[in-house]
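Example record

Each entry pairs one chain with its bound ligand, 6-O-phosphono-beta-D-glucopyranose.
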Amino acid sequence: MVIFGANGDLTRRKLMPALYRLAYEGRLAPGFAVIGISRTAMTDDDFRNRMHDSVSKFMEDAPFDEDLWRSFAQGLFYLPGDVGDMVLYQKIAGSLAEVGKQRQTAGNVLFYLSTQPSQYGEIAEGLGAAGLAKGEGWRRIIIEKPFGHDLPSARDLNARIQKHFEEDQIYRIDHYLGKETVQNIMAFRFGNGIFEPLWNRRYIDHVQITAAESIGVEGRGAYYQEAGALRDMIQNHLLQVMATIAMEPSATFSSDEVRDERAKLLRSVRIMTLDEVEGNAVAGQYGAGRVGGQQVVGFRQESGVRPDSPTDTYAAATFMVDNWRWADVPFYIRTGKYLPKRVSEIAIHFKSAPLSVFRNSDASGTTAPNLLILRIQPEEGISLKFVSKRPGAGMTLRPVSMDFNYGASFGERSPSAYETLLLDAVIGDATLYTRQDMVEASWRAVQPILDCWATKKFPFPNYAAGTWGPAAADAMLARRGHVWRTP
Ligand code: BG6
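C-alpha cells for the complex follow.
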C-alpha cells in the first residue's frame, strides 16, 4: 500500500491504527507492506517510530502489542518527495519493485490518496504517466474525501483519474458507509420481514438524520474554512446515510447492484430551485460558548480562520425524494460542530394512529407517534418508542422504549470503519465505496444550496458553541409542523 500524505493526521489517527489492527487479527498477508510518501525528510526508521507513537496512542479500544508491532513495522517504508515532481513516481516504481520482491507482494498495489484534495488529480496523473496504474498484479486507488469541491470540480477530478485508472480500480472512500451501524441499516431493513412493509410514505411521516459533534474544528481551521459543514458532512456522509435508509432493496448483495440502488435513490432527490433554498436549508456558524464545561472561542477566532469567515459550521436541510415510496416525506438532515453532545442517529417518525380511542381517558401521551431510532454512534443500537399502559387503575398511557444495544447483544468489539474499508479495498470489494454517479448525484443535490449561500451574507455567528444550532433550523421544521428531536 502506498500512502500519499503519510505524515498527515488521517494516516496517524485512522489508517495506521486500522492497518495495525488488521495485522493483529491476522487479516493481512504476512508480506503486507506500506510505503509512506510525504514531503518531510525522514528515514524508514523515523517513519516507523512516528507510526509507533501514533498507533499506540490512537488504537481505539484494543490492546497494543509491542512484539506484533516490531514485525508489523518491518513492513513500513518511507519515501520523501514532492507529488508535483515526476522523479518521485520513478522512485516509487523503484521502491515498489524492491519492496515487492523482498515481501513477495505479487505486484499488487493499493494507492491511498490522503494529501490536500487539490493534489489528487496530479497524483493520479503522475502514477499513470509513470506506468504505475497497471502492473503485474492488481492496482487500485483509494481517494479520500472530499471528492471535488462542487459538481464541476468533482467531474473534472474524475476525468483526470479515469484517464489512467478504470472505474473498477477506483475506490472513493466515505467512511460512514464503513461504520458497522450504517451497514446494519441494510441488515435491519432487508434481513427482516416486518419493517419493510412499513417503510414508506403510508406509515412514515418524516425522517430526521442528525450528526452532532461536540468538538470544534480541532486545528483543521484552514481546511474547514474552505469546506464548511454542508460540504464536509452532508454532501457525502449524510446523503449516503439517507440513501441507505431510503434505497430500494437490491436483488443481490453484489457491489454494483447495491450501488445501483443507492445511486438511483440519490438521483431521485429533488433538486431545489434557488428560491426554495431559503425555506429548506439553514446555515450556522458558532460563536463563543461553553462546551463540556469549557469556555471556547468562536469559529472566527480559531487559528487559520479569517475574522470575517462566511463558512458554515452548522448546516441543516430538508430533502424530498421524488419516487413512489417517499413522495411528500421530508428527510431532515442536520450536522454541526460544537453542539451539546456527540451523537449520530436516524430517527424515523411514524404517522400517528388514525384515531385516538383513549381520548376520553386520562391518557397523556396517547398521541405520541411511534419512533424508531437507529443510533449510529455512540451507544450504538436501535430503539423503538411506543406508548404503553401505566400499571394501575385507569388507562394512563406513557411512552416507553424497546432497545437493542450492540455492546450488550454481541459483547465484542466492532471494527473501525477504516478497518472494514481498507480490507474491502484489499480484497477488491467496492460495495461500501461510492461510485462516480453517486458522487455526482449528491453534489447535484447540494449544489443549489452552495450556490445560494455563496451569494448571501449571513449574520454569523448565529449560535453559541454548546447549543443545538441556529433558531432558523427549528423554524425550517416548524413550517411543516415538525420539531427536531433532542437525541
Ligand atoms: C470527517 C469530517 O469526514 O468526518 C470531520 O471531515 C468529521 O469534520 C468526521 O469530524 C466525523 O466522523 P466520525 O466518524 O467521527 O463521525
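The mean pLDDT is 94.
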